[in-house]
Specification:
Helix 10 links the parallel strand 6 and strand 7. This protein has 24 helices and 27 strands. It is α/β, with parallel strands linked by helices and 750 residues long. The strands form seven sheets. The chain has an eight-stranded parallel sheet. It has a six-stranded mixed sheet with strand order 13-18-17-16-14-15, sandwiched between helices. Strands 22-21-26-27 form a four-stranded antiparallel sheet.
Length: 750
């Protein structure tokens, strides 16, 4: 208890922390003293609505029926809509539920009323939901938005998500997802900020600030839940839920930094990962949960398991049964059980037998109640009817504008041979690709609160922009080519825009793939379109980096548009016509071939670095470098870098570079600062991102861009978890991506 209070009090003066007043702490202790063991454990139990009476077969069998075609997805959705749902009202009434998942404000009010008015102690529920990249106003998937390199944008979109969440009764967002991910075969790469720990840390800070910091009104903030702790993005072979094995130094230098940053920013809660780490599932990993996360990093609130993860410890083989799994999880520092009911069914008996001290239960409940008190749920458990009616009608105009801005900043121009782009409004566009006309595909993976009527397809975006456009679906990521439509498309238009990529269901959780090239017959469609001799622009619509070596070699213009959210169509049209000059950069390296995965720019050096010689570290049948490296992205103008300068001053390195827009179009350049520790006591990466700035330049304008690199940030963790700063030679790089940079060496003393 004293340790938790110390954490809350130590950060009480910080603007960005979860703070409790003395009165709130007293209320917390008063509640705890009145609670029975069952009620305490009830606070540690999270449930979701379950389907009853609707099906005679399990959901897993239904999913197999969809896969083999026995029923359609539409038929399943209709069955789900008609099914009766159990919202566990009796358990809530009995004080046996601390949290429930949902996004229905009217149902939220109904359940909160039961908790507040019909349970013995009147403790509100904390309602959680996966709001990864927006709720109703869906903005770009994280791998796209992170490519804006815009910290203010990260914060503003999170603020929007928080406000909409509270309007739907949600006080707890299972976001941000800040797993560093270096393997594009992993489907969940779409949900996170890419392969770099520095960028992921700044992304984490921005999202936590946006979700939590505007406490001017209860309806403006939620509890962030950073996930997935820890090293989930390193799952072996890019297979979801798979094992993870790594050194302590790799864990501390690559995978922990975003979580450390989130804790420093005051993140209220954390979700543990499914995977095991060096043989111990994160769900029951005391070293990572209790010792590192809570004691060292200073988590203010509580830790929740991922869905059914406590029960899965039996399948992992680290727990013998439900009781054993529950004991191991709670003793390791897992405060809330998502979905398995193991805590509810097993912990009371474990406490009575002396297998779990009551002090462990009390600490978990204190943390959960602290978050509820901080959120103001006791005083404001309900969504006002005026707010419900507002969002039932339409999205606020300012939310639509922000979603569009985020989409525009997230688009990456990969190739523009012969300046095909931007397209002139006088040109007739032949738009092809099934994805181009499907408004429901723009939202991407893990978007769960949107309405189709709010979504703008690429076809509709071009029409909104006043384009002279004719549309032929022709082919999508699945199915065959419609030869008649393709033949007609080849005879239409001055320029062909082909929208290709993945459906939103092809990335996200449980979508690991061995082949990340364009799925289906889309390449064949592109081949036919290129045979026309007309200018062809490929617009990629996808949730992961793709192996597009053929496309890069053959298609003259390529726009990486990801899944950009509800305003995708308008944003893509803005870029295609040049009313917006693309400024996005890649946050994950694009391999030439799927077999090159994992591929990432900040890899350690080897004794035989990749080169032309046979006996070097490389694949003999693939290029040495990424097809498109981390940080890459061009625009409709050209930025020249010159005159790099690096000087040492006390505790800082001062780095500057001259930028000049040598083109005729105003543009925004993301200037990136990298370093290399040339000789150290541990092998270091060939480059590490250490700073970035978005710089706007008018045509022919020059600017001096300056960075101040804190020398304390130039160290690394060794394999004992000790942070080291070692004197020696450093290389400093500045450029527009991780490959094309200016460099200067400097001897640094710490």
């Amino acid at each position: 208890m004293q340790k938790l209070y110390a954490v809350l009090n130590n950060y009480a003066k910080e603007e960005n922390s979860m703070r409790l007043t003395k009165k709130q702490m007293e209320r917390l202790e008063s509640l705890l003293s009145q609670m029975t063991t069952e009620e305490k454990i009830g606070q540690m139990n999270q449930v979701s609505s379950s389907i009853v009476g609707g099906f005679d077969i399990p959901m897993s069998e239904l999913q197999e029926m969809i896969k083999d075609g026995r029923i359609s997805r539409e038929e399943l959705e209709e069955m789900m809509d008609k099914a009766e749902r159990d919202y566990h009202e009796e358990d809530i009434r009995a004080g046996l539920v601390g949290s429930i998942m949902g996004n229905d404000p009217k149902k939220a009010n109904e359940l909160q009323r039961i908790a507040m008015e019909e349970s013995r102690l009147g403790i509100p529920l904390i309602i959680g939901f996966d709001v990864i990249h927006g709720l109703r106003s869906v903005y770009p998937i994280s791998i796209a938005e992170a490519g804006s390199f815009d910290d203010a944008l990260f914060e503003e979109t999170a603020k929007m998500a928080a406000k909409e969440s509270r309007a739907y009764g949600i006080g707890w967002n299972f976001a941000p997802m800040i797993d560093v991910a270096r393997d594009a075969r992993w489907g969940r790469v779409s949900e996170g900020p890419g392969e770099d720990p520095y960028l992921a840390s700044r992304f984490a800070r921005g999202k936590v600030r946006g979700l939590q910091n505007d406490q001017s009104e209860v309806g403006n903030y939620v509890a962030a839940c950073v996930k997935h702790y820890i090293a989930y993005g390193a799952c072996e072979g890019g297979k979801d839920y798979n094992t993870v094995a790594m050194s302590s130094s790799q864990l501390h230098n690559v995978y922990l930094p975003p979580f450390r940053a989130a804790m420093e920013e005051g993140a209220a809660t954390v979700m543990a990962a499914f995977n095991d780490l060096n043989g111990i599932p994160c769900t029951v990993n005391q070293d990572m949960l209790r010792d590192t996360l809570k004691d060292k990093l200073g988590l203010r609130g509580f830790v929740v398991s991922d869905a059914n993860a406590i029960r899965e410890c039996i399948t992992h083989g680290i727990a013998s049964d439900n009781t054993d799994a529950g004991i191991k999880a709670v003793m390791a520092g897992m405060d809330m059980d998502m979905g398995s009911r193991i805590y509810l069914n097993e912990l009371k008996g474990a406490v009575e037998k002396g297998l779990v001290p009551m002090s462990v239960i009390d600490e978990a409940v204190r943390r959960i109640l602290a978050v509820k008190l901080w959120l103001g749920l006791f005083e404001n458990p309900y969504v006002p009817e005026s707010v419900i009616s507002l969002y039932e009608k339409e999205i606020p105009a300012e939310h639509i504008a922000l979603a569009r801005k985020a989409a525009e900043e997230s688009i990456v121009l990969l190739k523009n041979e012969n300046n095909i782009l931007p397209i002139k409004k006088t040109q007739k566009i032949c738009l092809v690709g099934a994805l181009a006309g499907k408004a429901e595909e723009v939202v991407g993976a893990w978007a769960m609160g949107w309405k189709v009527r709010d979504c703008v397809s690429i076809l509709d975006g071009l029409k909104n922009a006043g384009a002279d456009v004719v549309y032929y679906p022709c082919c999508g990521p699945e199915g065959e080519i419609n030869d008649a439509q393709l033949s007609a498309a080849c005879n239409e238009g001055d320029v062909i825009v082909a929208v290709v990529g993945e459906t939103r269901a092809m990335s996200g959780e449980a979508t690991s793939r061995t082949d990340i090239s364009l799925p289906g017959k889309q390449r064949e469609m592109l081949e036919k379109l290129l045979e026309t001799g007309k200018p062809v622009v490929a617009v990629l619509m996808n949730g992961r980096p793709m192996a597009i070596k053929w496309e890069s070699e053959n298609v003259p213009a390529i726009l990486e548009a990801w899944h950009l959210g509800i305003q995708m169509g308008n944003a893509v049209a803005d870029v295609l016509f040049g009313s917006v000059n693309p400024s996005g950069k890649l946050v994950s390296s694009f391999p030439a071939h799927s077999g090159q995965c994992p591929m990432y720019y900040n890899h350690p050096n080897t004794g035989r670095p990749a080169g032309e010689s046979k006996f070097t570290s490389k694949y003999v049948d693939a290029p040495i470098e990424a097809l498109y490296p981390f940080g890459y992205g061009i625009s409709y103008t050209k930025i020249k870098y010159d005159d790099i300068s690096v000087t040492e001053q006390n505790d800082w390195l001062n780095v500057s570079v001259m930028l000049k827009n040598v083109g005729d179009t105003e543009g925004v350049e993301v200037v990136q600062l990298y370093m290399q520790d040339v000789t150290a006591s541990l092998v270091r990466p060939v480059r590490e991102l250490k700073g970035y700035q978005r710089i706007k330049l008018k045509p022919k304008e020059e600017k001096k861009v300056c960075f101040s690199l804190n020398k304390q940030e130039m160290g690394f963790y060794d394999n004992s978890g000790k942070y080291l700063l070692e004197d020696g030679l450093f290389r400093i790089f500045v450029g527009g991506n991780s490959k094309d940079t200016l460099m200067q060496e400097i001897m640094v003393s710490f």
